[in-house]
Amino acid sequence: MHVYKDPNCGCCTGWGDHLKAAGFSFDVTETADLAPVRKRLGIPERLAGCHTGVVEGYALEGHVPAAEVQRLLSLRPQAVGLAVPGMPVGSPGMEAGGRVDPYKVLLVDKSGRETVFASYPARR
After folding, report:
1. Contacts of the segment 117-122: beta carbons below 8 A, 24+ positions apart
2. Percent above pLDDT 70 for the chain
């Protein structure tokens, strides 16, 4: 896997630690401007997160849980990849004292449209 991230972002490092704990290894390119990376990979700006990964030809935008990455690689759908837009509290790398806001992992198709791949409920 290859990850593009802002050099000053701590939550990106937390997401990387989450991936490593799940058995993924990756290289990192640090950049303050991820828009060209997202554009090249086919991730619409409306789905932007704070880091972008590439694994086996799929893009991973934002705080995508490792379990969903593993599921994506198992299913191998015709898609650009997965996105968790924004920075939802409680997603991998965004842990906040046990609080989890609800969020969705979106499957992005090759035309830039998204469908729900997985949903994570709120927890307090």
Report:
1. 117/68, 117/71, 117/72, 117/82, 118/65, 118/68, 118/71, 120/65, 120/88, 120/90, 120/91
2. 100
| Top-confidence residue, 31 or 8 | 31
Radius of gyration of the chain measured on its C-alpha atoms: 13
Domain boundaries, the chain: 2-120
Q: Output the pTM of the full model.
A: 0.95
Residue 62's H or E segment, with its range, is strand 58-62
Residue 87 C-beta-side C-alpha neighbours within 13 Å? 12
CA dihedral angle for residue 102, residue 105, residue 109, residue 112, rounded to 10 degrees: 50
> What are residue 78's phi and psi, to 5 degrees?
-75, 100
